[in-house]
Amino acid sequence: MDCDHARSQLPLRLDGALAPEAAAALDDHLARCPSCRRACQDLQTLSAALRGHADRFTAPTALRSRVLADLAAAAPRRRPAGIGRWSDFGLGAALAASVMLAVNLTLAPSRPPAGPMADQVISAHIRSLMEGHLIDIASADRHTVKPWFNGRLDLAPPVRDFEAQGFPLVGGRLDVLGQRPVAALVYRRRLHVINLFVGPGDGTAGLDETGPVRGYTVLHWNDGGLACWLVSDVERAELIAFARLLRSPPPAQ
After folding, report:
1. At what angle do helices 34-53 and 3-14 cross, to 10 degrees?
2. pLDDT tens digit sequence for 132-143
3. DSSP readout, 37-85?
4. What pTM was computed for the model?
5. Cα-flanking dihedrals φ and ψ of residue 192, to 5°?
6. 173, 136 in Cβ contact below 8 A?
7. Residue 83 has pLDDT above 70, yes or no
8. 187, β-bridge pairs
9. What is the Cα–Cα distance from 18 to 20, expressed in whole angstroms?
10. What CATH code is assigned to 116-247?
11. Which residue of 34, 41, 123, 217 has the lowest C-beta tally within 10 Å?
């Protein structure tokens, strides 16, 4: 795969629209080509900024009625030769159902906004994707990342690497949620950035989910006295699988 072909595939890859074989070929090229890798990161940053800050509008009900009326007016009024009444009825019903489904999907109200904390988590995640904001300590070694937080926070975040499972640790930084400093552990899933925010918790159990909101899914749980917030635009099933890994007991040393 050459660079021109690779760059033409980047938007499809970020939208999850490439076939597995094509995605694997593109990932292999990105691993070997720093220039295309930077182009991919720039596209990710732009996409995140647009999702996080672009205005969104819900189409009014009148627009739906107008679209349906225009479709009805444009529909052929004569039955094609050789098609019986019942076949014509079935074709018309299928077409109408398809049109209604398309209109409903296009004009359906957006999901309710995220709660205050989940919204802060998403905003902090988007900020981290800007140039120079992602990592304060760059390392895949948990024995390097974990001690870095000593003296910077009043808590010790659990730091683990899951490279073998496809979620490599790439570093950490300090961030702020709810006007309190928190640890941010940074992981990757192929081309996607995953932020794990760790701060003081309330001890409640269970896994809460918010999203997708602005293209991001947020998972929240408490680990002992720590609150954990996991956020990314990676596929929901993959983020949940990663949350299970994070919540699993660490291996015996």
Report:
1. 30
2. 789 999 999 999
3. HHHHHHHHHHHHHHHHHS---PPPHHHHHHHHHHHHHHS--SPPTT--H
4. 0.58
5. -95, 140
6. yes
7. no
8. 169, 194
9. 6
10. 3.30.200.100
11. 34
